[in-house]
Write a sequence for this structure.
């Protein structure tokens, strides 16, 4: 177990600047998820921590020791790859134990450790099989077994569930979470799937163009996104952004969207906001519900909406309507709405809404 | 089919058939007519000569002895009890085995070196595969000039390097003449091994090596655990192709040693050529060819069986 400290890290491939100055502290035992769109530098960052890529600038410390000049094998990290990277000519047991054998560990100890790892992952009956005889989920379990058997200081996961189908992905996600609870080792996990990030992470590091856009606890990022990029990346269906103007009148504030004036929740601080400032109002589908109470509570704005589009998912339906000309999606109970064209009173929870500066797209 | 169905419908409707008897027959056997030219060509150029050669091997078919009487196994006997034939078979196995083994090791070493990127790799690769495009006759001629005594540069360079007079008869003295044949073959065919093995090496997923590096596996262990098992089918393929080609070794021998001195560098092909086309004992040469075919088929079957067993990853 160890903490990881990354300072001023850059990675360049010729003219391409993949990682552009990352500072990151990962606590001992923390589950950190690096998330972001394709090409944001998250995998490069992970591979640089592993030592599979050399950093162009900056330092990486593992357990208080600068490891920049260490070979991958000497960093005491284990990595799980997207396409498993199992040795195809070795049985499952040999795959798991190969690293220990290579490090000249006595055979009985290798066998004991392999058996223990297999037991933890529920793959004991598969030990005699070859990778080609396993399903995708089983292969990924073996790959994880190969990582845990070495008892490394840090686990690195490079999109380990991307090759699995949706159902198996859910199942494996749960297993990885349980594994972290059981062994409580520092884990760094790369994914482009925001659901994986939200469900697994103690801390999410959201990257964009080689830089950290925002980091923090999953719910912090979800509820208080620092930019429209973060707000749009996390959450499915995505947040709706409505262009408007900020109206400040003493302590009261409101957002004007064409002909509609939405009061900002009382007590909400608006950092550096100016009257007349162009803003984007960010509303997640779950911020909009069907009005049932006679009068809206504090911070709730009621709006009579005409439903344009309905996307039922079973228990819930996603209803799209126009608010001041811009499309907005509301997450309603399936029985709240029956058909497109229906007119409904919708409560907009301004207490949870996000407000961004329209120009910089940063939260205010 | 549709046409036939139309005709049947017309017949059923009582309409007179519009096609003549031949046209109907042609329509029914159209697929056979399409493949007939190819089949006839194969029959004329492959099957007939093969069967004819089988007949020839049991009769007297010799330009020096008149008549074509049935002689039983006499032609085969002549080959089997001919010490030159036995020597040529041994030499063929030995020369092809040694050449292919050297080509394999060199090809593998070059492929392992070239699999990593480095400046000038493309140019070096192009130069390395040039020998593949040269006719074996030209290769033989070039090596003859290089190794020739006393004017070839090889003895001169060796003399300068060793500081004493070197006067090796590369094409006349044993064991040097075998070395010459092997050098020419290795020079020409190592690139073939290299190209096939390089293709195999580049197909190995790089993250296997990354996983191994993180596992603390050293380069030697990684070679045995990852490279070799992945490359095995390609190795077997390259070895099979090369061995099949090497046992037909003829051109370089024809140019470099002419089978000599005496019959010292007679390979099986060269022996059969000499018996058949310089001594005109055609039936003996044909019987020898059949024996050689059986011998080759055994080797091929063995190799191909292994090749088919090599499971894809």
């Amino acid at each position: 177990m160890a903490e990881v400290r990354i300072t001023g890290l850059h990675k360049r491939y010729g003219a391409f600047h993949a990682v552009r100055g990352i500072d990151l502290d990962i606590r001992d035992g923390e589950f950190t998820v690096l998330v972001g769109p394709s090409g944001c530098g998250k995998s490069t960052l992970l591979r640089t921590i592993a030592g599979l890529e050399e950093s162009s600038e900056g330092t990486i410390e593992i357990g208080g020791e600068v490891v920049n000049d260490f070979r991958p094998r000497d960093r005491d990290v284990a990595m799980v790859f997207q396409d498993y990277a199992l040795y195809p000519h070795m049985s499952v047991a040999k795959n798991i134990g190969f690293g220990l054998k290579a490090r000249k560990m006595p055979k009985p100890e290798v066998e004991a450790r392999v058996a223990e790892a297999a037991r933890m992952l529920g793959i004991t009956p598969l030990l005699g099989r070859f990778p080609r005889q396993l399903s995708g989920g089983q292969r990924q379990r073996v790959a994880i077994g190969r990582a845990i058997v070495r008892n490394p200081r840090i686990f690195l996961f490079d999109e380990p569930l991307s090759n699995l189908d949706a159902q198996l992905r859910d199942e494996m996600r749960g297993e990885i979470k349980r594994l972290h609870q059981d062994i409580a080792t520092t884990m760094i996990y790369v994914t482009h799937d925001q659901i994986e990030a939200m469900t697994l992470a103690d801390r999410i590091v959201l990257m964009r163009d080689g830089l950290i856009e925002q980091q923090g606890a999953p719910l912090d990022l979800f509820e208080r996104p620092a930019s429209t990029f973060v707000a749009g990346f996390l959450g499915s269906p995505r947040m709706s952004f409505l262009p408007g103007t900020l109206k400040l009148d003493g302590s009261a504030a409101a957002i004007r969207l064409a002909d509609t004036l939405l009061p900002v929740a009382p007590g909400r601080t608006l950092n550096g906001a100016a009257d007349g400032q162009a803003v984007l109002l960010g509303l997640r589908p779950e911020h909009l519900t069907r009005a049932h109470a006679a009068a809206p509570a504090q911070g709730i704005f009621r709006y009579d909406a005409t439903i344009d589009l309905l996307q039922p998912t079973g228990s819930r339906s996603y209803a799209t309507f126009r608010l001041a000309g811009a499309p907005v999606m509301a997450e309603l109970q399936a029985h709240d709405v029956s058909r497109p064209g229906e007119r409904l009173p919708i409560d907009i929870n301004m207490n949870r809404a996000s407000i961004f500066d329209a120009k910089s797209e940063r939260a205010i | 089919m549709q046409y036939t169905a139309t005709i049947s419908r017309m017949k059923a409707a009582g309409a007179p058939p519009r096609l003549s008897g031949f046209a109907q027959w042609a329509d029914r056997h159209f697929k056979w007519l399409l493949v007939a030219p190819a089949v006839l060509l194969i029959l004329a150029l492959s099957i007939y000569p093969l069967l004819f050669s089988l007949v020839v091997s049991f009769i007297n078919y010799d330009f020096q002895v008149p008549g074509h009487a049935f002689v039983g196994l006499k032609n085969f006997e002549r080959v089997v009890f001919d010490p030159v034939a036995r020597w040529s078979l041994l030499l063929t196995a030995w020369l092809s085995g040694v050449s292919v083994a050297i080509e394999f090791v060199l090809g593998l070493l070059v492929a392992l070196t070239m699999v990593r990127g480095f400046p000038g790799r493309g140019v070096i690769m192009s130069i390395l595969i040039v020998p593949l495009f040269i006719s074996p006759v030209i290769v033989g001629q070039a090596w003859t000039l290089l190794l020739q005594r006393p004017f070839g540069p090889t003895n001169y360079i060796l003399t300068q390097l060793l500081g004493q007079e070197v006067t090796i008869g590369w094409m006349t003295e044993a064991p040097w003449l075998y070395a010459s044949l092997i050098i020419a073959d290795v020079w020409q065919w190592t690139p073939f091994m290299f190209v096939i093995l390089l293709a195999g090496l580049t197909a190995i997923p790089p993250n296997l090596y990354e996983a191994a590096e993180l596992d603390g596996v050293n380069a030697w262990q990684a070679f045995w655990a990852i490279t070799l098992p992945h490359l095995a089918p390609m190795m077997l393929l390259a070895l099979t192709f090369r061995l099949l080609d090497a046992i037909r070794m003829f051109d370089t021998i024809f140019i470099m040693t002419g089978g000599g001195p005496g019959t010292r560098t007679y390979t099986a092909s060269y022996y059969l050529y000499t018996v058949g086309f310089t001594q005109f004992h055609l039936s003996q040469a044909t019987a020898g060819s059949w024996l050689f075919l059986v011998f080759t088929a055994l080797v091929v079957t063995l190799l191909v069986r292994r090749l088919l067993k090599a499971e894809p990853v």
